[in-house]
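Bug #77: duplicate submission created two jobs. Keeping one. Sequence:
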Amino acid sequence: MSGRDESLAQNESDHRQVNEQIEQRVLLFAGEEPSFGIVCECDRRECDRRLVVNVADYEQIREDPLLFIVVPGHEDEQVEDVVEGDRREYLIVRKRGDAADEAERSDPR
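Kept job's structure:
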């Protein structure tokens, strides 16, 4: 994996770790069907876009370490495929190749 690819994968992992921390805080104070704001999990270091996700949906997506939630237009066709794009607020993408290997290695779960 090139240094650039490793850097992109690290950006995604960093975004995901922030979202995991946010989710834990939300669950402490949430009602029946809680939603929370997350940061886009794209590979753009400068990205600070926010998304609102239902906690149950987030948990389901996070069961697969290769799936990430990104703002429409932030998908990277070189390393991932859109697996669900019918939600207006966000896309679900699946990593492939070296990016998939790195996502599995850096998954905190």
